[in-house]
Design a protein that fits this description.
22-stranded antiparallel barrel; single chain; 696 residues; mainly beta
Length: 696
């Protein structure tokens, strides 16, 4: 590793070790000490929203009111997701300003934050630990979803360049209950969810079990889906100040892939929306196992030590058609297909150790997080390529017969291991309860090995963050921030001196709350840049030939104006540009320059609203409107998917232990498309789901 990196690390650790104890030595006795006078505390603002939790942890690693964080943070409650029947991350992301989501190949959740794709610029977390970004992410066991927009690498490291999505799971509670919900509806869909909680007599041992099962034929032909998951969680007390939580999950998803409807001659062809041009041999299976062990010990009222050990094992097999080319013919087109057989294993193990400290006196108070994360991610995969018979666009006749003959030498293998050691720190200084200064940074030291190519690379990168927030009153905050992030070097890059993909983001905004916290609003303006994007160049190899810029505005408003009446409105404007982007066309050999174009599947305007009302007689009604602006389906910006507006509604009735719910989705039958690879995947029209819930 380069000497300068060692010097930076030693200097940073020395400062932390020196300044931390020095500041803590000045800490006065805690206000709860009976020998000290109790300071005057302002009246706590009551928050009653069922849709937006008051506190979040993702932006700071400790619970804090979002009003006091100098960054854009969206927090979506599990109650809202349940009311919307948002069973996956794909559906849940509609509640976040500046975000849009798709489902690649019919089952892979993918989202866009501030114009950047989650596959290489957005980090997915589960309880604060990084997750592989493949497959469907269920929400059956989610207490809330927190989304931080903008560079968040100063706490979580690589890939968090445009933001992070944190799925915070349900934890065991000090009560006993059992809940089961059974649903059914359009496309032969059936779903069952179970939530069981138990506690010991002294509440020192808590247990919770969440589970789900789903089966559906889905809207598109041959796009069947089955999903199973179980999530037991244990929390037990060790003495009076220490608790341990063990969280386990096993999940399995299986079904068929969807290559969508191919783009032909710069347009979306007029063919039946349910038609699937994949082969009858298309299938996938994904199995995921997760383990998290969380320990938290309150050494004092102002010092807390936490440790999170995590392990994820994911294995997925995906066999299916791949769109190779589209050849126009009179009154139709010939779809040239390949067949890809993927076998991939991802194992991820890591540990986060951090301390949360509070100290200071007089008008200056400090909150600090000091931590270190060690992680190893190992990816092993093989891809074999075969050929499928071509199929006609207008009059498809499937002639595929097993077995598939694979082309020797056409496939490839991946054997990649990435080890990371990363100390991080966040210092928040509160000055006179009006000025709040945040300084953060994380130093990632990476060791990458490519077992197939027999090469390795060491890299060290620092992700800084600075934010300032001014709160003249308890109801208003104005803030600004700047941060940087990175993606590790891809070992496929053949440049002599490859560099990490880098991002820089700046943001200004305001947050306000009124009516005793029952009305909350936030607005932000931002600019985000990303350099050194890896693309296939004119030689057919990967080179860093891409830059992207995104500017925009975001607005969120939540309200609980009357008992049982809750509202959420979010809007995002995104102006994203490929400032430098050249790519090799694998079929013609031509070098294509897309500089100045819009990135694919990034709408300029996204609006979402949801309003719900619960009545004293047990009835409830809720509904929302979602608008998504037009998006380009290709980097050449020749094919534009039209804007669309959907209307959803929920009707419910609850009496004693029973509840019934009717979900009405896409009430107007709006026709619109979601993302495919050189293709589009039509979304479902009007559909209905009905559920019955029992709680004991």
């Amino acid at each position: 590793m380069r000497p300068v990196h060692h010097r930076c690390l030693l200097l940073g650790l020395a400062l932390v070790l020196f300044l931390g104890p020095l500041c803590m030595a000045q800490e006065p006795p805690h206000p709860q000490d009976p020998a000290q006078p109790t300071p005057k505390v302002e009246e706590t603002i009551e928050v009653t929203s069922r849709y937006v939790p008051e506190e979040s942890t993702t932006g700071t690693k400790y619970p804090v009111e979002a009003q006091l964080v100098p960054a854009s943070i969206s927090s979506v409650s599990g109650t809202l997701l349940e009311e919307q029947n948002a069973n996956t991350l794909y559906e849940a992301m509609s509640n976040v300003a500046g975000a849009s989501s798709n489902r690649d190949s019919g089952f892979i959740d993918a989202f866009v934050l501030r114009g950047f794709d989650s596959t290489d610029s957005g980090l997915l977390l589960v309880n604060g630990a990084a997750e592989p970004r493949t497959g469907t992410n269920q929400t059956y066991n989610i207490d809330r979803m927190e989304v931080v927009r903008g560079p968040i690498g100063f706490l979580y490291g690589g890939n968090a360049m445009a933001g992070a999505v944190n799925l915070v799971r349900k934890r065991p509670l000090a009560e006993d209950f059992f809940r089961i919900e059974v649903m059914g509806g359009s496309y032969s869909t059936g779903r069952t969810e179970v939530d069981l909680n138990h506690h010991s007599d002294d509440s020192k041992l808590l247990f919770r079990l969440n589970g789900m099962w789903q089966s559906s034929d889905n809207y598109r032909d041959r796009e069947e889906l089955k999903a199973y998951a179980v999530n037991p969680s244990f929390t037990f007390a060790v003495g009076s100040k220490t608790s341990v939580n063990i969280d386990l999950e096993a999940q399995r998803t299986e079904g068929s892939l969807d290559i969508g409807i191919p783009l032909v001659a710069g347009s979306i062809p007029d063919v039946p929306r349910t038609r699937n041009y994949g082969s009858p041999l298309d299938a996938f299976e994904q199995k995921t196992g997760r383990v998290q062990i969380n320990l938290e010990s309150a050494l004092s009222a102002t010092r807390t030590i936490r440790n999170k050990a995590y392990f994820t094992d994911q294995h997925w097999i995906a066999d299916g058609a791949v769109l190779a080319a589209v050849v126009p013919i009179p009154n139709s087109a010939l779809i040239i297909r390949a067949f890809g057989a993927l076998d991939q294993k991802i194992r991820q193990v890591g540990d986060q150790l951090d301390a949360v400290l509070k100290f200071g006196s007089g008008n200056i108070r400090h909150e600090m997080v000091i931590g270190i994360e060690a992680q190893e991610v190992k990816t092993e995969s093989t891809v074999d390529i075969g050929l499928l018979p071509p199929i006609d666009l207008v009059n498809p006749v499937e002639t595929t017969q097993p077995p598939i003959v694979f082309i020797p030498g056409a496939g490839f293998a991946v054997d990649l291991k990435i080890r990371t050691l990363a100390p991080y720190v966040l210092e928040v200084m509160h000055i006179d309860d009006r000025w709040h200064l945040s300084l953060g940074g994380r130093l990632d030291m990476l060791d990458q090995e490519n077992g197939v190519l027999g090469i390795s690379e060491e890299e060290t990168d620092f992700s800084p963050f600075v934010g300032v927030l001014y709160s003249p009153t308890q109801q208003l905050s104005v803030y600004a921030n700047y941060g940087e992030g990175f993606n590790p070097i891809s070992l496929g890059v053949v440049n002599e001196d490859p560099k990490p993909e880098k991002s820089r983001g700046a943001e200004v905004g305001l947050k306000t709350q009124t009516l005793s916290g029952r009305l909350r609003a936030s607005a932000a303006l931002y600019k985000l840049e990303k350099d050194n994007i890896a693309i296939i160049d004119q030689t057919g190899f990967v080179a860093q030939l891409g830059d992207q810029e995104s500017k925009g505005a975001e607005l969120e408003l939540s309200a609980s104006l009357r008992p049982g009446l809750d509202m959420l409105f979010v809007y995002g404007y995104t102006d994203a540009t490929l400032t430098r982007f050249t790519r090799l066309d694998p079929f013609t050999g031509a070098v294509l320059d897309f500089s100045g174009n819009d990135p694919t599947w990034v709408p300029k305007h996204v609006f979402n609203s949801w309003i719900g009302k619960r009545f004293e007689n047990g009835f409830g009604v809720a509904g929302g409107v979602r608008y998504v602006g037009s998006r380009f389906a290709d980097e050449a910006n020749l094919v534009r998917a039209d804007s669309y507006t959907t209307l959803n509604a929920t009707l419910s009735y609850e009496k004693e232990r029973w509840a019934t719910t009717l979900y009405l989705n896409n009430l107007t039958g709006e026709e619109y498309e979601t993302r495919g690879f050189d293709a589009v995947i039509p979304a479902a029209g009007f559909n209905v789901q009905f559920g019955v819930r029992l709680r004991m």
